[in-house]
Known about the structure:
Largest interface: A-B, 41 and 33 residues
Strand content of chain A: under 5%
Number of strands of chain A: 5
Strand content of chain B: 15-25%
Oligomer: heterodimer
CATH class of chain B: Alpha Beta
Shape of chain A: globular
Radius of gyration of chain A: 24 Å
Number of helices of chain B: 2
Largest sheet of chain B: 4 strands, mixed
Number of helices of chain A: 20
Structural class of chain B: alpha+beta
CATH topology of chain B: Conserved hypothetical protein from pyrococcus furiosus pfu- 392566-001, ParB domain
Amino acid sequence: MIAASRHALCTALYEWGCNLRTMRFGQLACAAGSSANEGVPADIEEVSDADLFASIKQRIDQASKAGRISKSDDGVNQIQAELADVLGELADRHSELRFGQLISRVAEKALANLYDVQDEQLLKVARCVLQRDVALEPVTYAITFPHVIQTKLKSVDKLTSGDFLCVTLPDAREVIKWYWGSESTGISRGAQFEQFVQSAANQHEPNRVTWDNVKATSLIHGRFADKLVADFVDRELDCLSKIPVQTDMFASREFDGLAVDLFSALLRPGIQPANLTKLLYQKRPKLIPILDDFVRRAANVPYLWDEPEQQDKGIRALRQRALSPDGNCEPIELLNYWLTDEPEMGALALAFRQFRYLAGFANNAKAISNLTQWIESNPRMTSNLRLSKVRLLDILGWSVIDHFERNDESMLCVKNSQKGHCN
Amino acid sequence: MTNEILSVDPGKHRLPPSRSTGADPLKLQKQIGNFGNRMDGMPMPWVHRGKGGELMLLDGVTRATRIAKLCPGIFLDVLVTEEHPNSDYGKLPTVRARLP
């Protein structure tokens, strides 16, 4: 589709929206995209401009035949009219991008999912992108960690709004390359750990934590006193055997409870959650995140409480903080929501929720999917190993904090708020 | 628009591809704070009907999720805005499968 007619596409989207006034512009685009192809509904980024335009026109024609098209001159849809203009101009400038890619990239700069982005927010960022001639990539590898704890990890009821930052990795591929190292210069210890996790020896023992697993954790700074783990190492773990090996945290919640039970049963004085997840990750690499302090800070999984009395007091304090002007910020609101929903939640249960939130934030789901495809098409980059989505988020989160600690922001885009990266 | 109104379990709705991870929990908690489990005055979610009568949400992911979470078993009225008998929504996750 030539650029001139992409203005027509934007105008058509606006016209269709005049008929569906409660819908946001991003929602309209998603709806038109999902109905553009017969069969399985399409992701708007994959839909050609011609198919998208035809889909919108078809809807306008149907509404017109039914006498339901409203010619809106009453200003109600003024923002959407402006959006259509600005996005049309942007589409001219970025003729290398399909319209679906373009509008998704703009929403991404607004730190929002295209479906959820408010029209005002989308318009503000679209104008900014146009004025500043911000680069837009056809394929995104930008992953955002919206609630990064920039200070040391602390108890959930002690956090304040000043503890949080929003960090985007504009190109997560660079971080994966950096983390992994190369065959010529030597692969990292994290990569060596992953090699062991995916080795035949480990996969041969899906329901048993072995001494080799214990030893492998030392590659990523895990440490265990043998006597503390002797009662469960080299034994079939009943709870583990009930969780299928391929269970994926992002595909199912069915086994969350069993995983949490297993984690609680093995956690004990002398075994930190970080070290325990380094063991359990090896057995269920698509389900269990490695919860060391760096990853917990990146994913906003602060310390919780061990005793019921501390828990009641802590939740009250968290609630008060969430309502106070100082604590009234999204990361604290979200923690308050999770802990109100399930007050007895432990670190792993909270991590499940926060990782899923992270994966669905803004355009992260698409970027993670693109990153996975990139790794599959460049297998040598990760020594011919595939990495689960959990592990990818884990590596990226760990790398964010590692860079912070070394005052190296070369791979990061840091904001102290969530107003979007074009403000 | 077909303008047909159906009363269905909101947990069974299919999520649109653009929101396949489920409702944004921050939006959800704000709606829960504002409206709790109330349905009076709530705009009806809009859906497309695909092959086998499967319904995909077009507008109202957060509303449907709120009702599915807070009022399990309660049916919710939705407006069918389009028919897509050749579209297979069965592969999309349901609201229930992605309840935060």
